[in-house]
Amino acid sequence: MNTKEKIFNVSLDLFSKKGFDSVSLREIAEEVGIKKSSIYSHYPSKEAILMDIFEYFTNLFKYDELLNSKDFILNDNNEILLENPELFYHQGSEAIKKMLSQEKNLKIWKLIFIQMHYNDTIRLFFQNEILVKPLIFWNGFFTILKEKGIIRKDCNPKLLAKEYYSFPIYLLLEIFAKYDDIPQSSLDYFFKEAEEHAKFLLDCVKVK
Q1: I need a labelling partner for 83 at 20 to 30 A (CA). Which of 70, 92, 123, 135 fits?
Q2: What is the mean predicted confidence (pLDDT) over 44-51?
Q3: Are residues 155 and 83 in the same domain?
């Protein structure tokens, strides 16, 4: 691990535990084992470290093999989406499960959820990347199902997207608020409950 990677990891660890605004560059440098001035060879500011963390996080979704496979493309020609929307959801769930299996990624989720009320950069990232973009995706998901007659015509795709997506967000908030070190059993429970909720909601609105 090179020095920049050490700065990244130490910063993420401190940010997720103490909050972005409560951590100084001097503290990061001490934890890494370098002088504060040495950080500037890799990052111009503490904010730049945070943005690098967010870029890494965004790229997890942007370049994930499963999320970008043909099976997860949102269009009305996707056979899995049309024939088994529960499986379509499950594939996305498996991709997220793989991401959360890495401690680094868990720390980023925790940083975002716990600190979004105290830092505008984190708050805006949460709004755009965690809320807006996924809701646009799931709105498209339910719109296709409605147009193809898979769910009832009286359904509101936008409201369904919020209901579909808000429950796993709630579960994550609950976990991060409860634990400093998240046990695997809690993550297993999260994915089990989220998928059961998704199946229940789809069953309620499907055309019988």
Answers
A1: 135
A2: 95
A3: yes
